[in-house]
Design brief:
By secondary structure, the protein is of the alpha/beta class. Helix content is about 30%, strand content about 25%. α3 packs across α4. The longest helix has 15 residues, at about 150-165. The two termini are about 25 Å apart.
Amino acid sequence: MLKLNEVSVRFGDRRVLCACSLCLEKGERLALMGPSGCGKTTLARVALGLQSPDSGRVESDFSRVAAVFQEPRLLPWLTAEENVNLVLADSAESLPEARAWLARLELSEAAELYPAALSGGMQQRLSLARALAAKPDFLVLDEPFKALDAALHRRVLRLTAESLRDASLLLITHTEQEAEALGCRVIRWSSLNRVA
């Protein structure tokens, strides 16, 4: 379970989060929707423990956490298969599983390529493959599907929904379609981030 209680974050004079409270139960899927720049990514970073709040409390009992951000966070000195294998046993024995995840995300031909040789959409799918391969109990997806064409977008959404199983999900999106495809309860940002 993840609990954010009265969490506030400010960057200089700019208040990004103001007394936000949120509870994500085990196995629950939640989508945050709101205008760009309103603090959704900051909230996700707080939930992941990457950003400390200025006030408020964060509690989480998730043990295996993964995230896919708007920009791919790949290790440039590792190939695609090595990036995925990193969250597995990181051994020759686990490489077949890494390749299987690449195949699911339609990246088989990119297995031995480095991130710099991949398009933006391919890098996003590689990031997603790595996150799903980690078999997280809590997954944060921050607009990871926006670089995909319509047909690929549908296939990747379906695969993501199937791969989550019992994992809790925090999805940041601008589209109802993504929230619905992933079985999320939607929270509109205005109901979460109170104005000071």
